[in-house]
Amino acid sequence: MELVAGCYEQILFGFAARPGELWLEFLGTITCLEFYGTAHLLSGAEDGLICIWNTKRWECLKSIKAHKGHVTSLSIHPSGKLALSVGTDKTLRTWNLVEGRSAFIKNLKQSEFISLNPLKSGIRWYIFFSERKADSINQQNAKNCMYAYKDVPLSTDAHIIKWSPDGEKYVTVITNKVDIYKLDTASIIGTITIEKRISSIRFITDSVLAIAGDDEIIRFYSCDSQKCLCEFKAHENRIKDIYSFEREGQHVIVTASSDGYIKVWNLDLHKVSLLNCSMC
Question: What is the top-level taxon of the source organism (predicted)?
Answer without folding.
Answer: Eukaryota
